[in-house]
Specification:
three-stranded antiparallel beta sheet; 17% helix; single chain; 3 helices; alpha+beta
Length: 84
């Protein structure tokens, strides 16, 4: 199943991401459980964590050095905080 497009990603404190979807949903995703191993260890640096951005097609997010989280995980494992 395709997940809705992400139209905005905002890094928050405590390794959370605020994700706004084209459906009007705004969801909160906790990245902390994903930060382990050498590939994700840079995310512990708060300044680096804040470099998160949308992938051009809106179906995902990534950080400057290529770390990403699967779009279905972002959508399915996040908590709805607003639904317009």
């Amino acid at each position: 199943m395709l997940c809705p497009k992400i139209i905005n990603v905002e890094p928050l404190k405590d390794y959370n991401l605020k994700l706004s979807y084209e459906t009007g949903e705004i969801k909160l995703f906790n990245v902390l459980p994903y930060i382990s191993g050498t590939w994700y260890e840079e995310l512990h640096n708060n300044n680096y964590f804040k470099t998160v951005h949308l992938i051009s097609d809106g179906h995902g997010i990534e950080w400057e050095n290529g770390q990403d989280i699967a779009p279905h995980e972002l959508y399915d494992m996040s908590i709805v905080i607003e639904n317009k």
